[in-house]
Amino acid sequence: MDIWTEKYRPQKLSEIKGQEQITHRLQAFVTNKNMPHLLFAGPAGVGKTTAAIAISRELFGENWRDNILELNASDERGIDVVRVKVKDFARTKAIENVPFKVIYLDECDALTKEAQDALRRTMEDYAATTRFILSCNYSSKVIPPIQSRCAIFRFKPLAKEVVENILKKVAETEGFEIDSDAIDLIYEASEGDMRKAENLLQACAATAEVVGEKKRITITFVKQIVSFAEPKEIEAAVKLALAGKFLEAKKKLTDVMVAHGLSGMDVIKQIQKEIWLLDVDERLKIRLTKACGDYEFRLVEGSNEFIQLSALLAEMGLIGVNK
Questions:
Q1: What confidence tens digit (pLDDT) does each residue in 22-49 have?
Q2: Which H or E element spans position 164?
Q3: Residue 210: beta bridge partners?
Q4: What is the largest CA-CA distance in the chain?
Q5: Which of 140, 145, 234, 250 has its CA 20 to 30 A from that of 279?
Q6: What are the structural domains, with CATH classification, of the chain?
Q7: Spatial distance between the Cα atoms of 109 and 34, rounded to a whole number of angstroms
Q8: Backbone torsions φ then ψ of 263, nearest 5 degrees
């Protein structure tokens, strides 16, 4: 359970960091005590659920739990969820001086097509007593009729300074120290996902040693937790492959995967980042990026990761030799 994530979850819209443009617009709905159906789209851990709960807290006060129905569509994906749970809750009025209840449907892009069709009709029929807040990672997976019924808010990954400030505040509150390079690695591993960053910090704090009077988190502890390969290790494997030294590149990459317990997808992502930083011709970067995309697709389809990564290194060798 992400205990720290719940402990440090903002309670008000004004406390949500990194999404100020969105929260300012949402605050206007709270002030007017009226709002349309909302669709929150964006990556994980950037404040979508927090914003929905904050809206409910500010609208309904202490009784907010009685006026919001939270469902996770990835667990309950079928049409019965809409027909039974959602409709039963939508039929009743709110008990506060707000003319509607709130139904928060998380990961709604996981709903089946039939369930989304039923949801579209329910949103229409119970608009007088209910407002829906839908949350998803990919708005393109939500059918157009639902999108047209909602005001769409697109959340972005959190900026490095936002994550850094929150992690420093957590460290100060919990009574331990954290090095700046450790924060940098946590941010790189979390990719702007605050929930993941806080969970990584919690795991590091549990294993950190006491230095002086306080625990201190160094980059060494973070590396052990995130199972993150050093960029220079991936860079070395890529350069060996481009130089046509296939066997050396394959051995280097295999050693990195085994040492850090990395999956094929983790390695592909890091190779992609290193390609962008290479001091080579732009056309070469384009061909290497396309190769990464092809092999990433093969991994998603279930191919053997060691064979596919070896094939990627082989193709990179051919690209490097024929550049």
A1: 999 999 998 988 899 999 999 988 999 9
A2: helix 160-174
A3: 215
A4: 72
A5: 250
A6: 3-154 (3.40.50.300), 160-226 (1.10.8.60), 231-321 (1.20.272.10)
A7: 25
A8: -90, 165
